[in-house]
Amino acid sequence: MSAEKRKALGKGLSALLNDSVDVLPNKNNNNTRTTQPSEAGGLGSVNEIKIDQIEVNPYQPRTEFDSEALAELSDSIKLQGLIQPITVRQAGHNHYQLISGERRLRASKMAGLVSIPAYVRTANDQQMLEMALIENIQRENLNAIEVALSFQRMLDELDLKQEELGDRVSKNRSTVTNYLRLLKLPPAIQVSLRDGDITMGHAKALISVNDPVKQLYFHQQIISHDLSVRKTEEMVREAQRNTVKKEGKQPEPLSFQVQKIQDELASKFSTRVKLKMNTQGKGSIEIPFLSEDDLNRILEMLDW
């Protein structure tokens, strides 16, 4: 990958969309930017397009929009108009598909606007998907599960590697990996993270637990006791330490003769028998029972 291309990838959405206006020479300032006049629907320019001529992006990864936030944006648009244009691609005569800005489009409809300012761009289906995903990822209020799902879609549908994905969204590989690992959590935990009942910090602590059953148990403790991330990390560490203590020291394997005795006792009493013996020949026999009747049965066999 060339240095120029890698630099462009790191710019994210702006690199995909390029600049939205053309540069015209100016006697006083050669860097002054202004919009080139063009017909409605002209490529690379800002145009007023009728809202009923715009269809939503079929590749839009976001499915949930906060109704209260939309209403607030709609009220703002009624007073001041839409400040930031949406971006569309032309799909036919007087027919456009939204590339980015669905929230602004929805709020403009709520505000009763008939037309809306829009950049008209050329984009194929893959670029449409990539633009929509990157715009979503760069939103501050996107929850961690939405980000993770967007990352996974970029990997699957754009055939990217994690390093390339990191370049596209200006994040390092470890950050991308941490988000993708969230999708391995049980669905109930993912829903809690999506709904804001737990945070990314809670989720990262739960990821370190390999057993999904234990993950769900710890998750329930977080919800029930309103545990902080720090308390959650302590709880998980303590549980893992106890597990290591229980499993750390394995008993010495039984000799063939002792194993044979243990098996014969188990057969005689019709239950699992545990026989322990140390190197000095001392030990114990453990005969578990399932109920009082089962205990009486074993005692009768012992002529108790």
Automatic annotation (TrEMBL):
<feature type="region of interest" description="Disordered">
    <location>
        <begin position="22"/>
        <end position="44"/>
    </location>
</feature>
<dbReference type="InterPro" id="IPR057240">
    <property type="entry name" value="ParB_dimer_C"/>
</dbReference>
<dbReference type="Pfam" id="PF02195">
    <property type="entry name" value="ParB_N"/>
</dbReference>
<keyword id="KW-0238">DNA-binding</keyword>
<dbReference type="InterPro" id="IPR036086">
    <property type="entry name" value="ParB/Sulfiredoxin_sf"/>
</dbReference>
<comment type="similarity">
    <text>Belongs to the ParB family.</text>
</comment>
<dbReference type="Pfam" id="PF17762">
    <property type="entry name" value="HTH_ParB"/>
</dbReference>
<feature type="domain" description="ParB-like N-terminal">
    <location>
        <begin position="47"/>
        <end position="137"/>
    </location>
</feature>
<dbReference type="InterPro" id="IPR050336">
    <property type="entry name" value="Chromosome_partition/occlusion"/>
</dbReference>
<dbReference type="Pfam" id="PF23552">
    <property type="entry name" value="ParB_C"/>
</dbReference>
<feature type="compositionally biased region" description="Polar residues">
    <location>
        <begin position="26"/>
        <end position="38"/>
    </location>
</feature>
<dbReference type="InterPro" id="IPR004437">
    <property type="entry name" value="ParB/RepB/Spo0J"/>
</dbReference>
<keyword id="KW-0159">Chromosome partition</keyword>
<dbReference type="InterPro" id="IPR003115">
    <property type="entry name" value="ParB_N"/>
</dbReference>
<dbReference type="InterPro" id="IPR041468">
    <property type="entry name" value="HTH_ParB/Spo0J"/>
</dbReference>
<protein>
    <submittedName>
        <fullName>ParB/RepB/Spo0J family partition protein</fullName>
    </submittedName>
</protein>
